[in-house]
Inverse folding.
């Protein structure tokens, strides 16, 4: 097994002012490469698709956080084109509210694993995600109030970017480079007060046993 | 972290067009660009958001007075392959 290698990130918080938003992102070179894109914006519009370098990305989820007035979405694509290309996310009409954009590249990645979403709960929002050996976890949160931590696992603060979409959005938090052991990983998101959501997604490492893991082998004839 | 500077113009009659024109790590330049944005285009959109969504107001009304506005709210880890110049003086823009 091997932990996914983190690549480039792009974070942006513009107002699209159109029925799509184009965002440049440089994808890393390497085998088993993977790209994810997370967006949060006002729920006055829905997301209708997303491409990277002209290739359609797969939507993992799109969720309407009606209590927060926000819509959050997660797209991914395996083996995208390398180098500088555009992410183009489209809406069902012109979006005049700010959008939170987080794009992250990986190499040596086994794709998406478990994913769970929990809407606003009083801070702290505690959750968990059961993952495979050597996986990483990405989390994102939305709140009316300032977000104060993104913990993976609980007790370990991870860096994140805070965007203003007329709500507060924490995006970009991810596990430490070492990854996790297989099993249930506790997670926590906090805000200054009030409620906060907690969406989590497993980014899998490369599966399969390796011949260089000092295992003993014998051949039966 | 490197911040990308984007030029925002009118596209067609009702849409915004973003073009990346440079990058910087100078916090003073970033703050000045974003303060200018917030007091101009950001203010106009904030005051007319619902009317813009409903098509009652066109963003072209704003650009009748401003040819373009810059914004600096995109962060990347490296600027390689972007083909953008580094901005070290606000007067370069």
């Amino acid at each position: 097994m091997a932990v996914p290698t983190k690549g480039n990130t792009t974070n942006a918080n513009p107002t699209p002012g159109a029925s799509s938003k184009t965002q440049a992102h440089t994808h890393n070179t390497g085998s088993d490469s993977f790209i994810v894109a997370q967006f949060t914006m006002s729920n006055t519009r829905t997301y209708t698709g997303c491409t990277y370098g002209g290739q359609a990305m797969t939507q993992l989820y799109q969720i309407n956080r009606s209590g927060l007035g926000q819509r959050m979405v997660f797209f991914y694509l395996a083996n995208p084109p390398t180098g500088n290309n555009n992410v183009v996310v489209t809406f069902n009409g012109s979006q005049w509210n700010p959008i939170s954009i987080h794009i992250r590249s990986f190499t040596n990645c086994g794709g998406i694993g478990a994913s769970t979403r929990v809407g606003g709960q009083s801070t702290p929002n505690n959750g968990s995600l059961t993952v495979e050996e050597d996986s990483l976890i990405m989390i994102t949160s939305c709140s009316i109030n300032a977000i104060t931590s993104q913990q993976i696992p609980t007790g370990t603060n991870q860096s994140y970017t805070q965007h203003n979409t007329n709500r507060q959005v924490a995006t970009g938090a991810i596990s430490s480079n070492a990854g996790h052991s297989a099993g249930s990983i506790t997670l926590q998101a906090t805000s200054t007060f009030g409620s906060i959501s907690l969406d989590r997604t497993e980014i899998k490492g490369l599966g399969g046993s390796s011949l260089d893991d000092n295992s003993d082998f014998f051949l039966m004839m | 972290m490197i911040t990308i500077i984007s030029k925002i113009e009118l596209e067609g009659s009702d849409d915004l067009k973003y073009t990346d024109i440079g990058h910087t790590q100078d916090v003073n330049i970033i703050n000045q660009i974003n303060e200018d944005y917030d007091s101009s285009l950001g203010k106009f959109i904030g005051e007319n958001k619902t009317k813009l969504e409903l098509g009652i107001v066109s963003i072209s009304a704003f650009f009748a007075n401003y040819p373009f506005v810059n914004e600096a709210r995109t962060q990347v880890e490296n600027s390689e392959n972007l083909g953008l110049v580094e901005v070290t003086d606000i007067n370069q823009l």
Chain A has one domain: 5-204. The mean pLDDT of chain A is 94.
